[in-house]
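Lecture notes, part 5. Sequence design as translation. It can be helpful to think of inverse folding as translation between two languages: the language of shapes and the language of residues. The source text, in structure tokens, appears below.
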């Protein structure tokens, strides 16, 4: 099968999807909305900037160049939201020109704003699939009048919807998805590689030297809590940082790992203000291999998010045996039974987050039972080989339905 993937090529979700598609033997043409370097096999690569995404430098940011936290992220998001529509005409023209030169069976846009909104302007003859990310409907769709209009337009145009939670399929119907359109609910990154993300011994050898030295310096019985979410507009890191002194009162030796927060001024300010610099290890962006090692070293993973689907970091963490403490959201209740295989908290309350982490650190039996429960969940609902088979069936279902609806277009759909 020949797929045109319209996505942010820098994203770990896109990288995971590419691994899954390559595993199926598909021919993939990547239309990336951001400059990126892709190390996986592609039939072709094209840059299609939209909403000022082309202004991002192709080289990955170092930790020292990281921007100034959630406030800066919200400011950039607001600017893109209100001014980004001006970039649509040029992006549409470029996308159409690229697709005219390709022979593809399907166009798949990973995320509605802005990739799905752009893909909705492709030729109707090309079957279109949209992937919904965790906050496309719950946060972005109502953030501006034109975002609402373009979300409805995108959902009405699509021939199939993929989401990482059942909630978003229900919401897609409300936003105009046709009742007979095929749907698929599987993890957004195309499934987990269980050879990488699994319970097991902690081997620090594959960490880069400066990170390995920091982790090796921790006594083996040191409780470790990891927050893998970084700075995002919808993640309450104020709640996270304010919870730490409360946790440290009960478990003074606890260390908190914060990937992607090294160099973030906001993180450094929180640590200084709360006097907890010695208890938090700010880390740069890590590879999947490094993240898996740190998950296995941690007892608890926290995610105080106000908007989410099923975060890949959540799945990766529980696959490695971490006990999850996450925001009490409908999407996460599809995975977490409170008090059974994780704890659900109000993401706006530091006291609630602290109490949940303390409960998890105190109760090793709870963590052990949760880990066994979560291993079965991951194998059943998130393992990559199983997900790839579901994805292959879904793609063919969309193609067959499109062909059935428009028999005059049998043959090439490009």
């Amino acid at each position: 099968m020949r797929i045109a993937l319209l996505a942010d090529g820098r994203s770990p979700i896109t990288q995971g999807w590419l691994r899954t598609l390559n595993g199926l033997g598909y021919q993939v043409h990547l239309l990336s909305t951001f400059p990126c370097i892709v190390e996986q096999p592609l039939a072709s690569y094209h840059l299609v900037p939209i909403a000022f995404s082309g202004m991002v430098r192709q080289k990955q940011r170092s930790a020292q160049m990281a921007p100034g936290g959630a406030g800066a992220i919200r400011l950039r998001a607001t600017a893109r939201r209100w001014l980004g529509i001006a970039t649509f005409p040029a992006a549409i023209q470029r996308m159409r020109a690229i697709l005219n030169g390709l022979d593809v069976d399907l166009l798949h846009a990973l995320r509605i704003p802005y990739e799905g909104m752009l893909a909705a302007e492709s030729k109707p003859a090309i079957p279109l699939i949209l992937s919904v990310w965790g906050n496309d409907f719950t946060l972005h769709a109502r953030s501006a009048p034109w975002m609402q209009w373009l979300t409805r337009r995108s959902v009405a145009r699509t021939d199939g919807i993929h989401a990482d939670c059942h909630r978003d399929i229900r919401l897609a119907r409300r936003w105009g998805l046709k009742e007979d359109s095929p749907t698929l609910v599987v993890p957004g990154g195309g499934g987990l590689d269980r050879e990488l993300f699994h319970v097991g011994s902690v081997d620090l050898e594959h960490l880069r030297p400066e990170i390995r030295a920091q982790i090796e310096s921790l006594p083996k019985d040191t409780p470790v809590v990891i927050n893998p979410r970084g700075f995002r507009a919808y993640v309450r890191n104020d709640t996270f940082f304010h919870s730490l002194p409360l946790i440290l009162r009960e478990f003074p030796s606890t260390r908190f790992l914060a990937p992607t927060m090294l160099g973030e001024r906001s993180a450094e300010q929180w640590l200084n203000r709360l006097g907890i610099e010695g208890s938090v290890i700010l880390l740069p962006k890590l590879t999947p291999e490094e993240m898996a090692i740190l998950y296995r070293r941690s007892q608890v993973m926290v995610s105080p998010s106000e908007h989410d689907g099923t975060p890949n970091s959540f799945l990766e963490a529980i696959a490695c045996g971490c006990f999850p403490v996450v925001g009490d959201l409908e999407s996460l209740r599809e995975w977490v039974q409170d008090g059974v295989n994780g704890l659900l908290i109000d993401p706006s309350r530091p006291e609630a987050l602290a109490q949940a982490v303390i409960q998890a650190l105190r109760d090793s039996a709870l963590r052990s039972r949760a880990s066994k429960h979560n291993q079965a969940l991951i194998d059943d609902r998130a393992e990559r080989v199983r997900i790839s088979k579901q994805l292959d069936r879904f793609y063919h279902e969309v193609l067959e339905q499109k062909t059935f609806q428009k028999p005059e277009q049998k043959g090439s759909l490009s």
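The translated text above is only one of many valid answers, since several sequences can fold into similar shapes. Residues 58-69, 407-414 have pLDDT under 50 and may be disordered.
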